[in-house]
Design goal:
The structure is a homodimer of 418-residue chains. With 418 residues, chain A is an alpha/beta fold. In chain A, 42% of the residues lie in helices and 21% in strands.
Chain lengths: 418, 418
Amino acid sequence: MNLEELCQHAHEVRLSVGMLDADVKNKVLEDAADALLEQEAEILAANAQDVENGRANHMPEALVDRLSLDHDRLEAMADGLRQIAGLDDPIGEVMSMKKRPNGLIIGKRRVPLGVIGMIFEARPNVTSDAFGLCFKTGNCVILKGGKDAIYSNIAIVKALKQALQKNGVTEYALNLIEATDRETTERFMKMNQYVDLLIPRGGQGLIQSVVNNATIPVIETGTGNCHIYVDQAADLSMAADIIRNAKTQRIGVCNACESIVVHKAVAKEFLPMLYRALEDKEVELRVDPAAEACLDQNLPLVHPATEEDWGKEYLDYILSVKVVEDIDEAIAHINRYNTSHSDAIITKDYDRAQKFLNEIDSACVYVNASTRFSDGNEFGFGAEIGISTQKLHARGPMGLEALTSYKYIIYGNGQIRK
Amino acid sequence: MNLEELCQHAHEVRLSVGMLDADVKNKVLEDAADALLEQEAEILAANAQDVENGRANHMPEALVDRLSLDHDRLEAMADGLRQIAGLDDPIGEVMSMKKRPNGLIIGKRRVPLGVIGMIFEARPNVTSDAFGLCFKTGNCVILKGGKDAIYSNIAIVKALKQALQKNGVTEYALNLIEATDRETTERFMKMNQYVDLLIPRGGQGLIQSVVNNATIPVIETGTGNCHIYVDQAADLSMAADIIRNAKTQRIGVCNACESIVVHKAVAKEFLPMLYRALEDKEVELRVDPAAEACLDQNLPLVHPATEEDWGKEYLDYILSVKVVEDIDEAIAHINRYNTSHSDAIITKDYDRAQKFLNEIDSACVYVNASTRFSDGNEFGFGAEIGISTQKLHARGPMGLEALTSYKYIIYGNGQIRK
């Protein structure tokens, strides 16, 4: 089947998939979890083939690790599907209903988006996650995974499709684009006639390519250059704890802290505390001259920052550190260099806490908490598709509702317009 | 100032515009209404120049009419701004706030989108409407109007900017791209670094060009091939009244009815009624063979339909008419040929009313009412930016809320992630 036919099939069955009852959808998700485990041997064999090819192509070990599946990881994928089955179905909810002066009753009902495309790199777990989230919300999904995980993806999709078949649901609810060439990917991005939303998940290069080339509406799930501002009225020990958590609890995630901004009045006391709090984790500080002056000379983990450091998402044991004159300078600096993902202030001062919440232009703005909480599960959504760094449709952590649209249903009794 | 500088200026001031209090914004809108009327002479002179150029370039009279301003139309534009001033300000509303088990309090606060671009054709009233709606919601706006209305737009923007200046608000809250060449328009569509949303308003060609070329997220406001299905359990006299209203109350609007689908059991009784109901308006019926068989031969306004008729938005005194076997055929036909705008069923049958509401994939689905109600004012939004025919972000009539995003504000007291 060629790409256009595949997209067209998904488009044609979207309405029947969108009308499935929650009971049926949950049963499919439970069966899909079982199928993954029943077909463990085939899936792990396919994955071993991908890993072997990756090693032969000198794939970096960190990527090999992301690509590799084993029994525990497959179990985690199955658990993910079961967890999604347990969530409330958002489809069909009437978000509001009002009677107009002319007697028309106008309701706003939550419906699926239709067909969702996902373009992602070599993480096979995204395949089952994306299916689970899209199917739960009554959407058809078209997956375009990385070339490096193609055997794994084919095996996983085969197992998931058996669950659809077992429950009499069209197999076009789940579609994998098996061609892995660049040209197919670029043609896929322009299938706006059939696909309602495209979500790229991966590095900056992938996301930029999708934003620049897609005619399908895109949700950008982006990088996080997250800042923490230590105000002059901060509880400094709380600030050190929060920064240690936000930087080191998990490296390599988009809600990890990358940049510290400190008010000059507390820099001399705080920066040595911060250094000690991060020392055992060997976190390097890239500091501006004012911050450098607050730290002992010759500390091994302190280096001067360059202009480039302010805008960097390190995803590593590195923090940039800037000292500012006041909160206005802090806010201007953060709004200039952040990626509108998550930023925090540590303070006991009421006015400055409010000012920071009002003036920082990010999806998530915190007072006295770690930026690591920017996550669908931590926000209570029960699941997460990604974290949007754009303002249209969905911003910040995206739960099931981000995969829905609405339609107006209007009950009349003969009204005509005057 | 070049295009990039203009977009950058708007981006830079977006946060200060976004934080203006409603009192200030409303005062600017009232003053802008006054300024339009105070500068009536200049605006009408500039408009006369556009009209003269249009006539010299053989602009069709319908377009000349859309382009032309006079005292009454300027008054209507001013009234539009005053009406927007009177609406509630949606910015700052906390849409939800919950306490998480770890004590974090997570609120979702409505904020402006930032910078909104509008690309539109030769209707000068869009200039003040777009400014009013975007400014009320704390957004900066960049307008790219049609070449044919350039003198009018410059004069209108000049008046509106005086209201900003008078109230000490940055003039970059409102920006007009004065260059009218195609290349500037295409570069503008790719300014996603500075512009958060692009709304094209105009014909299908303009909208397709924006969808295909923009890297800025787009909301498609599209064409309406609206259907009315006359069920076998319809009140036929109600059906005729509603169709007459939906077709003829205003021709040339996207929520006008273009296509009638009739159940075979009532076609013989209903179609002659429909013909008579539309006869004085000289509405031509383009009919399939089954419908033709229900009408007297040689009626002057009946012609056979071709395949092309089913997908057509006539914007004229023409209706396509199809007879179907049952509601399933009706729904399949409508979902195939509609533009997902507005469709209606006329019936007294409960099950089929529900089925139609559930299965038709449109922004607005009606039972026993005219499709002409698909409109922001009729829906009680107080204003309308357009009618979205896409599913992302906003669907159907868009009020002020469609021009907003949200951010999460999180109150903690030292929480770190475990």
